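Recap from last week: sequence in, structure out.
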Amino acid sequence: MSNKKNVINSEAMAQRLCALYQQQGYSQYKMSKFESYDFYVRNKDFLVSDRIITFTDTDGRLMALKPDITLSIAKGYPDSGDMQKLYYNERVYRVASTANGFQEIMQTGLECLGNIDSLSICEVIALAADSLAAISDDYLLEVSHMGIIMGLLDELQLDYSQKEELLALICQKNRGAVAELCAGYALPQALSDAMLRLIALYGDIDSVYAELEQMAINDKMQAAVRDLHAI
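Predicted structure tokens:
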């Protein structure tokens, strides 16, 4: 009985979120369950896990059950640059977090693509807050800007693969591994300290903004901090 109730609650919540996105002019994106496996091989850095359920199609192609929705939406986006507002309520298939094997996961969300302006960004953030509020009154919304950390990485004398490795650990907020990698690459202490400060940076908007202003050491970081504050 409890499992059935949870399923009903999940479906009702998904319907509420879809209605919220429709009210803001988002169109539903429908997709098949399958994608070419080669597509995920080319974009493996964007996936949560590189373990994917595969099968051979009747024409001999190696196919995959979709582990991700955003990639498929981005793949189908036209090059016109026009803004496209889409929402989805689809199933993906990923490695189970608590045991071996795979699990089917229902995902509801939205994507805003094309010529994005500050108003569009604010709308997406507001919808994120409204989505969380629809699920529970007890929620926390974190907002960040990749331009800040990318600007800091530009200061490092590292090759592309080294920066990618460091960025992956930063996104995981793995301060211990980042500190170890910085020491292994013999990075300047001031830059290493700044990176560790960024990972741990947290608080209300005004206090975080003040600290980010002090940390912005190049044009890219300063522009990102201004964008974040404006948003």
